[in-house]
């Protein structure tokens, strides 16, 4: 845009109004206070702890942190739904586990076939197809599938207070990233529209891919090889490889985020005095969502919770701290 | 910053002056014209080919595109210099190739030990150390090493016209990335300060890494395993994995960039009419830099040059198109 026009617009649209109160869906709790204090401390020009905008990296887990993950990770629901829809092209599946259980919608049966079974379910629904075929299948699923308990579309099962947190951080010149055990190609289909997080700021699990010219058209093909799982110790490694900067703020909800929280917040040495924030979303609300932590198979929160006090991590109590859980459908 | 203050500053500092002419070190050539026409076409709000800012991804090769690469890739010079500096701690190297040649500064001798020799040189200088140890060693080398022919620091051997191109693109809300065969951790040490490209926008070759707590401090350790080489077909794959968006503009200088240029510019189908630009930096200036293309071992430009016309790629003739090559030392 022409610089003169930009300036005129800046003059016309600037108003003396103060910015709206941030985090409107957060109750006035210690969690909210800790977040706002931290952001003001690092973003305020006059603060002795001011941090340059280029260093304001915020990384968030996805499952259980930005959207729900019960009764199972939504991406597993996607994989199983895809297997069901592909069953007619694969008649041999009807008599072979884990496909037999998947087609019957029997999640317990699928889980009973262990890691090897899950690998097969994921290979069938995530690999040996082009990048576009895969993302189209995810897009279609998001538009049509419904959560079995709430009846909502899966992308409606996000956390309104976390959407506000992402927005608040970006208003203060943070760059918001996802660092998740979920599939990077799965999340990239909706992360920009749903979270305001563009594809280049999504970090996740992946499989290998290859480039080929198919009838003169450059094509990326996803392969069932070299899986990288962006979980636990894998998260700081993925942050190092994909971002190349240590986060200033990290948010998660389970022990899969322990190392990311440690990597973000534990000082390197005595000279490392930059303020950093670790945040854990604790599922305490059996009425409005699900309550789970130490005993859960999905999103188990045990060690990270035990270390939270000592490490100074903010533990968000969903029941106490959030006025609402999911966005209201418009 | 307080919104009111921001607005007042916008009013005070806005002047009716027109923005300075872009690309001042570029001669008025077909290359410059093609670049400016393209950027105006996609960035101008009134253009029928306007592209949303979120899609304006520009990816650039590094060696031979943003900085020089003769007589050998600068990262190889780094690796050899590191081996020399580590020689006293490794007395067995003095009688073993390729280390013997490296210590003697004999690049031909190093190359003679082939791929296996290079792997050993790189393992010794790039792996089995912490991330911080590695980046410190790169930083120190950039501050002290001099190019054997020009006597300049290596980060002074960048291309002033390309710095201006990166700046011009960013002024038009492009996000500038590096997609290079060079090491991502090597390039991240200087890319932000030298090119204005932050670490999270550097994509390159890598090795595996692991996370561990060392005396209670979270530490990333680089390992001599699982190398990923971000070259040729690897570049579109890396773009898919790390960026997740197809570039709008891609620039390179050699056949290592062929697939990235194809991936960026060849339409997917008839409906794919978004304008995209491919750019090749052709080394034609034996006086001010080096002249090489089809016959070169370093930065060979053959097939990509042959396809350039048919594909509509802009071929920048360094001798004809650039008023100066490297920045003038201040």
Assess the beta-strand content of chain A as a share of residues.
5-15%
Mean pLDDT over the full residue set of chain A: 94
Rounded to the nearest angstrom, the radius of gyration of chain A is: 21 Å
- Biggest interface: chains and residue counts? A-B, 59 and 58 residues
Counting DSSP H or I runs of 4 or more residues, the number of helices of chain A is: 14
Shape-level CATH architecture of the largest domain in chain A: 3-Layer(aba) Sandwich
What sort of overall outline of chain A do the alpha carbons produce when their principal axes are compared?
Answer: globular
CATH class of the largest domain in chain A: Alpha Beta
How far apart the termini of chain A lie comes to 33 Å
Q: What is the CATH topology of the largest domain in chain A?
A: Rossmann fold
> Could you name the ranges of chain A where pLDDT drops below 50 across 5 or more consecutive residues?
none
Helix content of chain A: 25-40%
Helix/strand class of chain A? alpha/beta
Question: Quaternary status of these chains?
Answer: homodimer
Q: Domain count of chain A, please report it.
A: 2
- How many E-type strands of chain A? 10
Order of helices and strands of chain A: HHEHHHHEHHEHHEEEHEHEEHEH
CATH superfamily of the largest domain in chain A: HAD superfamily/HAD-like
